[in-house]
Amino acid sequence: MRTLAVMTGGGDAPGLNAVIRAVVKRGVTVNGWRIYGIRHSFDGLYDGPDGVIDLNRDHVRGILRLGGTILGTTNSGDPFNHTLPDGTKGDLAKETVARLANLGVEGLIAIGGDGTHDICARLAREYGLKVIGVPKTIDNDILATEMTFGFDTAVAYATDAVDRLHTTAESHDRVMVVEVMGRNAGWIALASGLAGGADVVLIPEIPFSMKAVIAKVLRRRKARRGFSIVVVAEGAKESDGLLHTQVMKASGAVKLGGIGRYVAEAIAERTGIETRFTVLGHLLRGGTPTAYDRLLATRFGNAAIQLAERNEWNRMVAMRDGKITSVPLESVAGGTRSVDPNCDIVNAARGMGIAFGDESVAPIE
Question: How many CA atoms lie within 13 A of 13 on its CB side?
Answer without folding.
Answer: 32
